[in-house]
Structure formats: structure tokens, C-alpha cells
Amino acid sequence: MNIGQVGILNVGTGDTKLSFDKSNPAERIRAARIVADMIRRGYALMVEVERDGVKAFQRVEKFDEEKCEYIIADFDPITAQQADETEVENEQSQIEDEPAPRPATRLKKTSKKNLAAESTRAVAVPRRAGG
Amino acid sequence: MPLEGQRLIIEPKFPNGKGLSEIGSPEEVVQDNGEIMRNSFWSTQQRREILVWQNADGSIEWGAVGCGHHFDYDLHTLMCSQAWGIEQESNAVKTLAALVNHHQFRQYMLTGMFIETSKRSGVSYMFRRLKPTVAIKEVNGAMKILCALCLHPIAYYAGSWAGAMCPTDDVLAHLMLMRGDEPSFWKQSNQHPAWKPEAGL
Predict the structure, then answer these.
(1) Residue B139 in domain
(2) Is the domain of B56 the same as that of B78?
(3) ipTM higher than 0.95?
(4) Residue B111 forms part of a structural domain
(5) Partner B contacted by A25 (CB < 8 A)
(6) Residue B189: closest CA among chain A residues belongs to which residue?
(7) If DSSP states are collapsed to H, E and C, what string results for chain A?
């Protein structure tokens, strides 16, 4: 499976591949429509991302059909956990020094990251029936 | 693909999913002879389900259901093989080859299984062709089996380890969900304890 391709696990004919080749606009439009439809229908679309030089797969949240871009959560659980621990330590040291009124709880916003489909490898898994 | 004698269980949101699931489903036989089911539980010693019921005259009886091995599962899985094709399996194997390293692929081709450890949770998974994925964690230097995770995309045949997709596609689905969305993999899978025949251990 090459970069810019989406492998779809499928019954009948077996795995099918979609390509986001810029030199083939018709195929690109068709692939974009299929990918957007798959996400709407509950397919789990996993894309290959690179974090600190290490390759990993992450689930796609949305797909921008016009730009042909996967939208994923730009969230690293390990970094977030370290940040949370530092935050708790800071809060505790602050409480020990002088008890201050607790600040209002703020919801952390998860930032999004866009990945160009033509340079990303992806695999789509259909809705699961259990086992 | 519906098969004679095999009940296909389809994800209900797929078009005609409910209707297709009814093909091959056993007919419900209602017998009103005054018996009341009192309890059922798993016997670790017998490796079978124990049923306790009350007869019409008030006497209590019990009986063991099932067997301690997974031969029935193996046999049903074998019978479901007519639903798949060599070409589909070959395509799936090619996709898998692009997603795992050479060592894992070699292991898969020679034994039908390979291991990968999740960077997030530290849990190791043994992916097996036509068997549930085994989740393993190291506890005090020893490997402990957490459970066997059974999951099939689209549909599966009841009482077997066969899915609607060819065997390697099921392995691919497990692998990709583990890599990309591990909590969802656990949530959507049927979690069989290691000692149950369904776990295939």
C-alpha cells in the first residue's frame, strides 16, 4: 500500500484501494466522496502520522472533501499526561504556600491537525458487528 | 454471504442487516411443561455452563451445557470457509505486509499469528488468524492473559470464529483499531476470559 492510498477492508472483491493522485482529478474526486461517505457511515479510518520521528496510526475525525485533507485530533496522550501531572504539582505547591481561591474550571480545547490525503497512508475499517 | 446452517450476525445499521441476520437463525420452540429456569453459571472445574431449573412438581435439577473444548467452534469456522476467496485473502495479506515489519509478517505467514505491543497502554496483543486476539500484560515478571478480544467488521457467523471478511482482513481490523483507537477496540470487542472455549486458548 503506497503513500496517498486508502486501503478499505471489504467483502466480495476483497480489499480495495483508493488513490488521491493529483494527476488524476477524476479519481481524486471519487476518492474524496467515498472517504467522506465512509466517515459519515461510521467507518474507522486510521491514518499514519509521525510524532517525534516515530510512526503511529490515529483515527480520523473528519474529512475535508474540498481540500482532500484528513482532520485528526492533535493530541498526544503521553504529553498531556505529563502536562496534567505538572499542573497538579503546581496547584499543590500553590495551596501549600498560600491558599488561594480555586480558579474556574476551564475545558481544555483539543486542537485539530490537517493531513493532506495525497501524502498520507490510510486504512478504513467498516462498522463492527462484535464477535 | 449467508451460508446454509450458519447464522450470520450483521451489524444492524447495514442495509437489510436485520433481514439478512434472520436467515439461518434457529426457530424458537416454546415448550410450556411447567419448568422454570432458576439459575445458570460458569463452572471453572467443568469448563461448562451449569443450568439449574425447577420441574413442574417443584423438584430442582441441574445439568451441564457445552463442552470443555472448542472443537465445535473449529468445525463451524471450517464450514464457513466457503464464504471467502483466495483472491480476497491474498489482497488482505498484501495489505498486511505493508503495515507490519518483516519479522511480524514472517511470523504471520509461518504460524498465523504475531505480537505487537501498544505504546499507549503497554499491553501486548497476539493477533491470530481465525481466533480472537489475546491481550497480554507483564505482571511481576510473568505474562498474564487479560482476555481474548473477538471482533468482526460488518458481520460474523454465530458459534464460530469466522467473519464476513476473509481471515486476514479480520486480523487487519484488529491491528488497525488497536493502533489507531485502542479504547474503541476494547469497547467494541467481545471480551472472552482465557478459560472459556470461545477464547480459543
Answers:
(1) yes
(2) no
(3) no
(4) yes
(5) no
(6) A130
(7) CCCCEEEECCCCCCCEEEECCCCCHHHHHHHHHHHHHHHHCCCEEEEEEEECCEEEEEECCEEECCCCEEEEECCCHHHHHHHHHHHHHHHHHHHHHCCCCCCCCCCCCCCEEEEEHHHCCEEEECCECCC
